[in-house]
Amino acid sequence: MRLRFDQFADVEVYAKLEMQNPFGMKDRVARNIILSARRTGALLPGAPIVESSSGTMALGVALVGRSLGHEVHIVTDPRIDRITMAKLRALGCDVHVVQAMSSHGWQSARIERLEQLMADLPGAFWPQQYRNPDNPGAYRDLAREILDDLDRIDVLVGSVGSGGSLCGSSRALRESLPGLRVVGVDCVGSALFDQPDVPRRLQSGLGNSLLPQNLDRRLIDEVHWLNDHEAFAATRDLAREQQIFAGNTAGSVYRVLGDLAARAAPGDRVVGIFPDRGDRYTDTVYGDDHWAEHDLAAMATAATPEPVAYGTVVSTWSRAEITGRAVDQAHLLFVESNTSGTGMLALRTARELGLRPVLATSKPERYAGLAEMDCELLLCDTNSIAALRAAIQLRFRREELAGVTTTSEFYVPIVADLAEWLGLPGNPVEATATCRDKSALRVRLREAGVRQPRFASVTDSADLAAAVEEVGLPCVVKPADDSGSNDVLLCHTVAQAAEQAARILAVLVNVRGLPTAGTVLVEEYLEGPEFSVEMFSAAGAAHCVGITAKSVTGSPYFVESRHVFPAPLPPETAEQIEHVVRLALDATGVRLGATHTEVRLTDAGPAIIEINPRLAGGMIPELVRHATGIDLLAQQLRVAAGLPARLVREHARHAGIQFLLADRPGVLRRVDGVPAAESVPGVERVAVTGRPGAQVRPARNAYDRLGHVIAGHPEAGAVERTLDLAVGEIHLVVEDAATETRRQEQAVEGRAR
Fold first, then answer.
1. CA 79 to CA 533: how far, in whole Å?
2. What is the mean pLDDT of residues 667-675?
3. Angle in degrees, 0-180, between the axes of helices 248-263 and 228-242, rounded to the nearest 10
4. E-strand spans in 55-154?
5. Residue 629 CA: distances (Å) to CA of 227, 650, 719
C-alpha cells in the first residue's frame, strides 16, 4: 500500500504488508524450508521439527509443520510475548523456554538447548533459519509480488535479523533491477554490522548477537541503527499516522522510509517491508508500563539519522554507507570435476581470477595432481543434494560464496539446483536437466520445431523393435544421459539394436555412481559432416564464439578423433548452423555460460544432435584459446562467480587437435616418436595419457583416447597437414594378447630359475 507522506508528494513510498500473511512474513520461510527438506529427504514424513525462535518464525514452523503432520518443538527465551506463547501452545507445539543467557546472550542459550533436543529426538529436523539458504530463497515470491504490483522500484528497505528477507528479496529484485539501492535497518546494540553487541536490547525481530550465515552484507548499500526508544516510538507513530498496527521491525523501517523519502529524487519509488502485526507487542512497544519499567523515555533520541563512517559505535539513530561488505577472497565452489583436461586447470584458473577454489568431492583420490593445487576440500556425498546442502550450510556464510560450478558433465544439473538454492548465477534446473536427458531434449526440440533426427525413446527392451520400425534402419542406439560417446552404436539390424539397448538398460549407475536415466534413445542416422557450435551466454545474450569441425572414427562407433577450430566454412553455411543452434538454445532455456552443441550438416540443412550446457570437452576450449585468445574456461568461471564475461578476440588463427588411438586391442608397451612430433613446425603440444602396461583397444568411446597433438597456424589447411605430419611421427607400440601371455610365461620361468 502507498503510505501518506504529504511533505514528499513527488516521491512514492510503499509498504509491503507481509503482516497480512496468517502469522507474518516468516510463514514464507517456514513453508519453503520445510517443503524443500521433505523434497530432498532431509525431513522424513512424521519426523519432529525443532526450531529456535521467539516470534513469527516459530509460528510459521507451527503452521506448516503441524499441518503436514510433524511434531514441532520450539526453543525460546523469557522475552517471548504471551500472545505468541498462547498461539504456539494452541497450535499443538512443545515450547521449551531457556531460563538464562549463555556466552553470547539469549541466542546462544537457545541454540545449546536446541542441540540437546536434536540429540534426544532421532531423525529431528532443524530448519536453521539463520544459515539455511531456503530462508532467503523464500523471498523470491515477495520480490515477484513487488514487481507485479509496481513494475519498478528504486529503493528497498528492510529490517535485518536472520538476513533472509532483505538479502533474499533484494538478490531476486536485482536480477530485473540491477541499479536497485538496498537499505538495511538494524538496532543499536546488534552485532550484525560490526557494532558492539548489547544482549539486553529490547527490540525483537531484528538485530542479532551472532552473525547469521544467510546475511550477505555485499547486497546492502546503506545501514541504519535505531535504539529501543526510537524504534518503539516509530512503531507508535506508524499506527497513529498510517493506521497500521505493526511490530517494532515495521516501525523501524517506517522511520527510515521517512528519511529516504526526504533524500529521494522526484519520481523515485521506495518500498519498505513490514514483517508482522502488533498484537505480539501490546505489552511492550504499546505498553506504557513497559516503557516506564525500562525508563525508555529518558533514552536519548535523534530526529534524523546521523551520517557516520561505517564502524563508528552508535547509540542513537545513525546511518552509514556500506555498499556491500568486502570479503578477503570469495570462494568458488566446484562440485566434483573432470579427472583430466580442464579439471585441475579450472582450480588454478579460479586462483588467477582472485577466487578461492573449493572442491566438493566424495573421492579426492580420483584426481591426479590435486595435492599440488592450492585448493580447499569439502568432503561429502556429492551424489546427494541433501548431503551437499548440509555441508555447504555448515562451512560457508553466504557472503563468502561467489559461485558454484563444475567441469564434470554429470554434475551440471546438481550445480544448477545448488545455484538456485543459494541465489547464485546459474542456469535453470529444468534447462540443464533437459539437456542432460537427451530424450527430454528431443521432445523439447520437436515442440519448438527445431530440425533434428527422427527418434524414439525406449525404457523397456520389449519396445525396441517398434522404436526401430518408427525410426528406420540404420539407426543410432545410445543412452539418454551418458557422455564421451559411451555406448553409442550405429546399428544395421533390429537384433543388433536390441542387443545394444539391453546392454544400455542393464547399466543402473554411471561412472560417478549417479543413477542413469534408464532410457535408450533410438535415432535416425543422419549423413553429413559433423560440427559443434561453441556459444557463450551472458547478460541476456548468446554470443557465438565459433564453430568446430569434427572428425569421428568409422562405423559403428562415433569417437571424435580430430577437431579444427574455427571450421573452414562459407559464411552463409556458418550462419545457417548458428541460427539453428540459437533456436535450440531458446527452446531449452539455457541462459548462462558456455554451451557445446553438436550438429550434423545434412543435405536438408543443419540438424541438432545434442546440446551440452557446459564447456566443450575434447580440449576444444584450448583450441579456442590458441585460435582467438579467448580463454573460455576463465570466462565460464567468471560468469559463475557473477563477474562479466570478456569475449574479446585477440587474434584470428586456426588450431586443431588429433587424438592418439590404438589400431588394435592389446597392451600398450610404449609410445615412440614424441620428440619428433614435438619438433614439427606448428605443433603446440604433444601429450600422452595412456599408461604403459594398460589394456587398450580401437576407440569405442572418448575414454579410449591415449593422448593428443595440438597444432596452430593462420590457415586451417596447414593445421590439418601439421597434425598429419606430427601423428605420422608417433608410433603406439601395442602387443596383442598372445604376445603378452608369452611374456608373462617367460617372466614366471625366469623367476623359477
1. 62
2. 96
3. 80
4. 72-76, 94-97
5. 56, 5, 17
CA–CA dist 232, 247 (Å, integer)? 9
CA dihedral 212→216→217→218, nearest 10 degrees, is 160
Residue 156 has pLDDT above 80, yes or no: yes
What is the C-alpha separation between 372 and 307, in angstroms, rounded? 49
Q: List the one residue out of 159, 145, 140 whose CA is nearest residue 16.
A: 145
CA 617-618-619 angle, 5° bins: 90
Q: Which residues touch 53 (CB under 8 Å, ≥6 apart)? A: 26, 61, 74, 75, 76, 129
Please, are residues 530 and 508 in contact by the beta-carbon 8 Å criterion? Answer: no
In the chain, the amino acid numbered 727 is V
Q: How far apart are CA 603 and CA 346, in angstroms?
A: 39
Reference 57, options 216, 175, 243, 206; nearest CA is 206
Q: 365 pLDDT exceeds 70?
A: yes
| Start-to-end C-alpha separation, the chain | 97
| Burial label, 119 (beta-carbon count in 10 A; 0-12, 13-18, 19+) | exposed
Q: How many CA atoms lie within 13 A of 275 on its CB side?
A: 32
What string of DSSP letters covers 309-326? -TT---SSSEEEE-SS--
Centroid of chain to Cα 608: 27
> One-letter amino acid identity for 284?
T
Residue 377, CA distances (Å) to 344, 357, 654 in order = 13, 9, 38
Amino acid at 100: A
Residue 155 to residue 198: CA distance in whole angstroms: 29
The three cell numbers of residue 95 are 515450547
- Say how many C-beta atoms besides its own lie within 10 A of residue 694's C-beta: 11
CA 332-333-334 angle, to 5 degrees, is 120
Amino acid occupying residue 22: P
Residue with cell 533459519: 129
Q: Please tell me the predicted confidence (pLDDT) of residue 292.
A: 97
Beta strands in 587-691 (DSSP E): 593-602, 605-612, 654-659, 666-672, 683-688
Closest C-alpha among 381, 202, 379, 395 to residue 299: 202
CA distances from 531 to 153, 340, 484, 618, 657 (A): 46, 23, 15, 13, 14
Q: Half-sphere exposure (CA, 13 Å, Cβ side) for 80? A: 28
Which residues are bridge partners to 430 per DSSP?
Answer: none
From 319, 333, 359, 277, select the one nearest 81 (Cα to Cα).
277
Per-residue pLDDT, averaged over 46-58, amounts to 92
- What is the β-pairing status of strands 666-672 and 605-612? unpaired
Specify the pLDDT at position 79: 83
Decide which of 341 and 602 is more confident: 602
Give CA–CA dist 100/191, Å, rounded: 20
Q: HSE-up of 546 (CA within 13 Å, CB side)?
A: 31
Nearest to 245 by CA among 547, 15, 37: 15
Cell 608410433 belongs to residue? 731
- C-alpha cell, 55: 516470534
What is the pLDDT, as a whole number, of residue 104? 72
Phi-psi region of 572 (alpha: psi -120 to 50; beta: other; left: phi over 0): alpha
Buried b or exposed e, range 248-273, using 16+ CB within 10 angstroms: bbbbbbbbbbbbbbeebeeebbbbbb
With H, G, I as helix, E, B as strand and everything else as coil, classify residue 413.
Answer: helix
Phi-psi region of 257 (alpha: psi -120 to 50; beta: other; left: phi over 0): alpha
Residue positions counted in the chain: 753
3-state secondary structure 345-385: HHHHHHHHCCCEEEEEECCHHHCCCHHHCCCEEEECCCCCH
User: In whole angstroms, how far apart are CA 370 and each of 12, 208, 332, 344, 403?
Assistant: 56, 40, 16, 7, 21
**Cα distance between residue 652 and residue 534, in whole Å:** 16
